[in-house]
Specification:
heterodimer; A: 269 residues; mainly alpha; ABC transporter involved in vitamin B12 uptake, BtuC; 83% helix; 0% strand; B: 266 residues; six-stranded mixed β-sheet
Chain lengths: 269, 266
């Protein structure tokens, strides 16, 4: 019981971070644009490292980094005849280069700078918890307000462009994703964030039988990944970020195997 | 409904399409045919404002085309469009009825509740196309033909007067190709819509098609009544291989004779 009380801020952070990452991942994976997450996560990482170097609040600079990354990505992907993946690769490598430069230039011990890469859930502060709650609430409100339009965007961006202001909505989605990425830098770090956003969504889209259930299941698997990963990390004394990501990967493999088994069973029945 | 005057699309100093001039009147069924790379999809994207015009003028539903023209963008929302199946995300678990409901919303980015009228229209569209038994099935689990049928139900639910169809029968087996052609024809007659349909092959056009545009290398080779212009020598010129044309009932069927107008290796 004492352990639970002692670790309650960590567990709350894992719940909020995992849920928001799992939900936003459904849109990213549903639109088949996982590379956007990698590019945004590294933009946030570069921003946070830069903030640390300049003595500015790294959460703020991380968010600014992710925000700038999201706007660039939104403009690039606006051209519907252009495959954005090549440009995303360039942005990803540029941001990673900037992050490593910032870490290299950081004076003294690099612990703080490196924590943005690997995450450090155990040292989550009360301020960060409130920020995570705020982002989670904003994410839910965003989904409720734009529910139908988001569903259409998820179904077909080309059709959405004809029917609604899809490019603006897509940019808003990228901004929300940037916020989720920023708050989760603390949970798993910039390098592993992609997995926490994408793995729960991949599993959710495989097993969900409706759009709403995909969002709910994505959120739940995100929570299970983050909390389960933390528990394993505590039991085995392994790094938290790595355990969370490994745990979410195990869930994806488990879901894939069960689905494959079900399909094979149905074919033989 | 649609009016193009000397419209051209130029990319990297290369003319992709045009100059094109033609008009589509109310309750016309216009077919656009041509080989790969003829500019059919570019023309369709142009009609939807997804492709910028380099030269000329385009009017749709009474609104002049311009990328920044709000009135045009509002008018565009009233156009029913069916893209090829490839453009829909296969991973998303959406129910069939949810896809048909996409025909109702869409004029505002903000959410609004479905009205009783919306529900009735969606129900009628699904009934008309015999989709009621599939309403709770996942769209992604349907066959290609069933998916296109659901898309046509979405178009019916949209109640738009102008419908653009991009190869609705592409990738389907012969039975489904024919079924969809029949459904499109029935929709045209019963709903009094203006339809523009892009296709590779003249066979896929329903008998009600009263105007045909033949595109080759971005230029308008010929336009007119399908029965008058679908002659073997013209289709041979269009596709680059010797063609045979057979008219059965009101439908036109074209077959390649297996020999090219120019040598195969040229």
């Amino acid at each position: 019981m004492d352990v639970l009380i002692a670790f309650s801020p960590v567990i709350i952070a894992a719940v909020l971070g995992g849920a928001s990452a799992g939900v936003v991942g459904v849109y990213v994976i549903g639109m088949r644009m996982p590379f956007i997450t990698i590019a945004s996560a590294h933009a946030a990482l570069a921003g946070a490292v830069g903030g640390n170097l300049l003595g500015v609040n790294p959460v703020l600079t991380g968010f600014l980094g992710a925000l700038v990354g999201a706007i660039i990505l939104g403009i690039i992907t606006r051209n519907h005849n252009f495959d954005p993946n090549a440009a995303l690769g360039t942005i990803f490598s540029l941001m990673l280069g900037l992050a490593f430069l910032g870490i290299g230039l950081s004076p003294g011990p690099k612990t703080a700078a490196l924590s943005f890469m690997w995450g450090n859930l155990l040292f989550v502060t009360a301020d960060q918890l409130w920020l995570m709650l705020l982002v989670f609430v904003l994410l839910i409100l965003f989904i409720i307000v734009f529910n139908k339009s988001l569903k259409l965007l998820l179904f077909s961006r080309q059709l959405a462009v004809v029917r609604i202001p899809a490019d603006t909505l897509f940019l808003l989605l990228l901004l929300v994703e940037a916020s989720v990425i920023t708050i989760n830098l603390q949970v798993v770090g910039g390098l592993l964030l992609y997995s926490l956003i994408c793995n729960p969504a991949i599993a959710a889209l495989k097993i969900a039988r409706s759009y709403k259930s995909a969002l709910v299941v994505g959120g739940i698997i995100g929570v299970i990944s983050a909390v389960g990963g933390f528990v394993f990390s505590y039991m085995l004394n392994w790094p938290v970020g790595a355990c969370i990501v490994l745990f979410s990967s195990v869930i994806v493999f488990g879901v894939m195997s069960v689905k494959k088994f079900q399909v094979t069973g149905r074919n033989y029945a | 409904m649609i009016q193009l005057k000397d419209v051209a699309v130029i990319r990297d100093k290369k003319t992709i399409l045009g100059p094109l001039s033609f008009a589509v009147k109310e309750k016309d069924f216009v077919g656009i045919i041509g080989p790969n790379g003829a500019g059919k999809s570019t023309l369709l994207n142009l009609l939807l404002g997804l492709e910028p015009i380099t030269r000329g003028s385009l009017q749709i539903l009474g609104h002049e085309f311009s990328g920044s023209n709000k009135a045009f963008r509002m008018a565009r929302k009233k156009i029913g469009v069916l893209f090829q199946d490839l453009n829909y995300q296969p991973d998303v678990p959406l129910l069939v009825e949810e896809v048909v409901y996409f025909g109702r919303g869409g004029l505002s980015v903000f959410d609004s509740a479905d009205t009783i009228q919306d529900n009735e229209i969606v129900q009628q569209a699904m009934e008309k196309l015999g989709l009621c038994h599939l309403s709770k099935r996942l769209y992604r689990d349907l066959s290609g033909g069933e998916k296109q049928k659901v898309q046509l139900a979405r178009l019916l639910a949209q109640k738009s007067s102008l419908v653009l169809l991009d190869e609705p029968t592409a990738g389907l087996d012969l039975d489904w190709q024919e079924r969809l052609t029949q459904i499109v024809e029935e929709i045209f007659h019963s709903e009094s819509k203006t339809i523009v349909m892009v296709t590779h092959e003249v066979d896929k056009l329903p008998a009600c098609c009263n105007k045909l545009l033949m595109l080759k290398k971005g230029k308008l080779l010929l336009s007119g009544n399908p029965k008058e212009i679908c002659r073997p020598e013209i289709l041979s010129e269009l596709y680059g291989c010797h063609m045979e044309v057979v008219v059965r009932g009101n439908r036109i069927h074209a077959f390649s004779q297996g020999t090219r107008v120019k040598p195969w290796m040229s």
